[in-house]
Design a protein that fits this description.
alpha/beta, eight-stranded mixed β-sheet, about 20% helix
Length: about 400
């Protein structure tokens, strides 16, 4: 199919649907989008509250908890222990589909009844003040942390430990103020630098050791303000810099900013990748309009995630996963997850779902675990499910949800 230009029904600007996009839509049997890529991205981000947290009570055990919902929220909010317990069953909230009501309205009504998880996370220890944190320990106010330990005031930290005040720090340890760094150790104030050791105030440096206030270095040791020295001379020069003084550090940071401004800048931060359009992309190929992505393949319109292939329109997706579309915080051993949020861990063919896990063949469900063939949290047989889903899709097209601004939401 040829390239096609449409008007976004949200911002009213024109946007282009590429032939590769049409191939994907045809593959998963969905219509092309009516919103432009930018508006779709903003819409997804509105479903992921990473930073604003509140103190409140768990509505089941009544304990004090930290949640991403404030006390004005009338929907039931459960702590992690209660939400994953056997004290309640999401299937009890199931209801039959009503062909007289728009399907998205029915999902919204269901979502108001089913208890919500206070913070999005999975198998964490001592990380009660961090949202969207997975398989981690001792994490504080550091959303989007994965398989890490001792992390504070950071974001997007994967497979690291002892990290403070950093953003996009992967496979690193004992680091402070790292922005877009990988495999760094015992270093601080690193920007777009990787595989550095015992260094500080580096911009665009790779595989450097014992370097200070330098930029655009490759495979260097004992460099002080972009000049090479012997190990003895370097240690003497560094000893004269009082890195423990806050006033000195402020002056050094101003010098660092000036250094960054005067240094060479790469057109985009793309590493070990092929056929990529975007920024901060590593170990990837065939990625279009992708940002903060690692190990992705055949992915388009993707922000923040790793190990995903053959997917489009995602924010905060982690794998291994494939064939995901219009999702927020989806992935991890998943396949064919569409129009869903916070649905992960062993899910297959799930449509319009929220906070579901280890489940397959779901349509419009909330909070289900270890279930199959459910619609609006109501259990069906395989035959009943396969017969009813096409009728619901037709109903979504015949009676679409229309919001207050007149935007029309049909299936897909």
């Amino acid at each position: 199919m040829n390239r096609e230009t449409k008007q976004c029904q949200n911002c009213k600007n024109s946007f282009t649907i590429e032939p590769e996009d049409f191939k994907f839509y045809e593959k998963i049997s969905v219509p092309p989008p009516t919103w432009c890529p930018e508006c779709r991205m903003v819409r997804r981000m509105n479903f992921r509250n990473e930073r604003t947290l509140y103190r409140r009570k768990c509505d089941l055990c009544d304990k004090d908890i930290i949640a991403m919902y404030d006390n004005k929220q009338t929907d039931p909010i459960y702590c992690y222990s209660c939400w994953f317990s056997d004290k309640w069953d999401p299937i009890d909230f199931g209801k039959a589909h009503d062909f007289k009501v728009a399907f998205l309205d029915q999902i919204r009504q269901l979502a108001r009844l089913v208890p919500k998880l206070a913070l999005e996370g999975y198998q964490n220890t001592s990380s009660d003040y961090s949202n969207f944190t997975w398989l981690s320990k001792e994490v504080y106010l550091s959303p989007s942390t994965l398989s890490s330990e001792n992390v504070a005031y950071s974001r997007v930290v994967y497979h690291s430990r002892d990290i403070l005040d950093s953003y996009i720090a992967h496979y690193s340890e004992r680091c402070f103020w790292v922005v877009n760094g990988e495999k760094n150790s015992s270093s601080k104030f690193l920007l777009n630098s990787h595989e550095c050791l015992d260094s500080s105030f580096l911009f665009d440096c790779i595989d450097c050791q014992n370097c200070f206030m330098s930029s655009n270095l490759r495979h260097q040791k004992y460099v002080f303000r972009n000049r090479k020295f012997s190990p003895e001379e370097y240690k003497r020069l560094l000893k004269d810099v009082d890195l423990g003084s806050h006033l000195i550090q402020e002056k050094l940071f101003k010098e660092f900013i000036a250094l960054i401004e005067s240094s060479l800048h790469k057109f985009a931060l793309i590493k070990k990748s092929a056929n990529v359009i975007g920024n901060v992309v590593t170990n990837s190929k065939n990625a279009f309009f992708c940002f903060d992505a690692d190990k992705v393949e055949n992915v388009r319109y993707f922000t923040q995630g790793l190990e995903v292939k053959d997917s489009m329109d995602l924010f905060g997706a982690g794998g291994p996963a494939e064939i995901l579309y219009e999702g927020v915080n989806v992935g991890y051993q998943d396949s064919k997850i569409f129009f869903s949020a916070n649905t992960y861990i062993g899910c297959l063919e799930a449509y319009y779902n929220k906070q579901c896990s280890n489940s397959q063949y779901l349509f419009g469900c909330v909070g289900l675990r270890n279930k199959q063939y459910c619609i609006l949290n109501k259990q069906y047989t395989k035959e009943e499910y396969e017969s009813l889903v096409p009728k619901i899709i037709k109903h979504m097209n015949d009676m679409p949800y229309i919001d207050k601004k007149g935007r029309v939401y049909k299936y897909g």
